[in-house]
Amino acid sequence: MVAFSTLALGLAAATGIFAAPAAEPAAEAAFDAPDFEFSSAKSLDRRQDYNQNYKTSGNVNFSPTNNGYSVQFSGAGDFVVGKGWKTGTTRNINFSGSTTASSGTVLVSVYGWTTNPLVEYYVQEYTSNGAGSAQGQKVGSVTCDGSVYDIWKHQQVNQPSIQGTSTFWQYISNRQTKRPGSGTVTTSCHFDAWKKLGLNLGTHNYQTLSTEGWGNAGGSSQYTVSGS
């Protein structure tokens, strides 16, 4: 599926890929500019400062708030929306809300990118079809936050990224016990497990809790998000 978004201060937009090739947008696909709210008096570890808003087709009504987001969607070819931080780290990400899926593939994940090396990563908390975006090679598993997660890696060749068309790796932790509602993602648990498997991250770019859908996706999500 394709994943992606824009950074309001002029950073190039990004896509992650999981859809069938026919569903992939061109690298030049238009991105909706996100709202961007930032107060230098607020800690980035405790305030969300990045709105992710990408779609290719269908009806996707995204409403970001100061502490989360809601989205209703139908007939969606591919979209990714969410709320997070313009700089990722090993924070604990708390989320509370719900997701319903009536059609297509829908997932809720902690999602982000790093550079040097260029990596697109997912910690999938909920997937409507079981595997969600997990593809490529399953390389191990890890227990975090009360569930086993299967760990996958997949190489994207000449695909859109936050650094333009590039070849890069996707790292994916897919939670076996799905939770579309509330919980905490201890990102260090996943990052440490990935590192032990040789899946090294680089310098963090943005990091979000996101809802994603493709394949005529229909449903809704609503979440509040915080970090510690």
Features:
mainly beta; Jelly Rolls; nine-stranded mixed sheet; two-stranded antiparallel ribbon; 1 helix; globular; disordered N terminus; GH11/12; polysaccharide degradation
Main sheet makeup: 9 strands, mixed
Tally of alpha and pi helices = 1
Question: Considering the protein shown, what is the CATH homologous superfamily?
Answer: Glycoside hydrolase family 11/12, catalytic domain
Low-confidence stretches: 1-44
pLDDT averaged residue by residue: 82
SSE succession: EEEEEEEEEEHE
What is the level 1 CATH name?
Answer: Mainly Beta
Instruction: Report Rg.
Output: 16 Å
CATH architecture: Sandwich
Q: Name the structural class.
A: mainly beta
Q: How many domains in all?
A: 1
Tell me the strand percentage band: over 45%
Name the assembly state. Answer: single chain
Signal peptide: 1-19
EC number: 3.2.1.8
Family: Belongs to the glycosyl hydrolase 11 (cellulase G) family.
Catalytic activity: Endohydrolysis of (1->4)-beta-D-xylosidic linkages in xylans
